[in-house]
Design a protein that fits this description.
Length: about 290
């Protein structure tokens, strides 16, 4: 029986033009009696501009090797440096994977059935459940990214998150937030400062019973709102606004509790680009 030894200098198999790599046979694919764990090179198939494909035998049939993207949901600094990451995979729920801004859980429960990534999501009951985040997340330029799930069209004032920000509006004028309104027809709003004239809302109502990716980007007073990585274009002056002056997920300090589920909540100290929002929308779960 032949024994193949792999030493560190040979473990990088992506060295097509050197002698320090595995040499694939040039004939047809192995067709004898296979045993589980065997490898073969199938020259009848192609992949990644190659005239052959590496396969392995899983005990029943030959399967192609696939190059899969690395998972990122447990990575704090993806796709750029983040301030905080809340994965909602532990019973405490308010734990910051980045290690700096673990908050306080107030009646939010762990749901292991309705989840986007990992083992669970955070379930908010619409009555008294929210997560208080520590001070220090604030900034004139900042972004949030998260996944949102609602059971039915929202027809009341419900705050998904509020971030005090430092937008330059002075006392009671710094509120950044994402929320639903009673008369909004199920559309989701993004607010810049506590003013009637600074809103962007989703182009259409947020669909029920499915996960939707939300990204809100504040850049020194300006704003860009993304739903499923698509920039939203509606906005302008609203008849009312919600005063937001704290750092909270699932409500604002005076109420308007959110009823639904949130997963993979990230805060960034920078203005995310369209490409970075797309990366977050397409990220691979661990």
């Amino acid at each position: 029986m032949a024994i193949t030894t792999i030493i560190p200098d040979l473990t990088d198999l992506n060295k097509a033009n050197t002698t320090k790599s595995l040499k694939m046979p040039s004939g047809g694919a192995f067709s004898g009696t296979a045993t589980e764990g065997m490898l073969r090179n199938d020259t009848s198939e192609s992949s990644a501009n190659s005239a052959s494909t590496m396969q392995f035998y899983n005990g029943t049939e030959w399967k192609n090797f696939d190059n899969l993207p690395a998972c990122t949901t447990a990575t704090c600094d993806y796709p750029v440096t983040a301030t905080a990451l809340y994965q909602f995979n532990t019973a405490t729920l308010a734990t910051d994977t980045c290690g700096n801004y673990t908050g306080t859980n107030n009646n939010v429960t762990q749901n292991t059935t309705v989840k986007k990534f990992g083992t669970s999501s955070a379930e908010f009951n619409g009555t008294n459940a929210d997560i208080d985040l520590p001070a220090g997340l604030n900034g004139a330029t900042m972004s949030v990214s998260f996944w949102l799930y609602i059971d039915a069209t929202v027809s009341s004032d419900q705050v998904v998150c509020e971030l005090q920000g430092t937008g330059g509006g002075g006392a009671n004028q710094d509120g950044y937030g994402v929320y639903f309104t009673a008369g909004g027809g199920g559309k989701l709003y993004m607010q810049t400062l506590n003013q009637n004239s600074n809103h962007t809302r989703s182009n259409v109502a947020i669909p029920a019973s499915q996960w939707v990716h939300v990204a809100a980007v504040w850049n020194s007073g300006s704003r860009t709102f993304y739903i499923d990585a698509v920039a939203q274009t509606t906005g302008g002056t609203e008849t009312t606004y919600l005063t937001m002056n704290a750092n909270t997920i699932g409500s604002r300090a005076s109420g308007e509790f959110f009823d639904g589920y949130i997963d993979q909540f990230r805060v960034f100290p920078s203005a995310l680009t369209q490409a970075q929002v797309t990366d977050l929308y397409n990220e691979v779960g661990c």
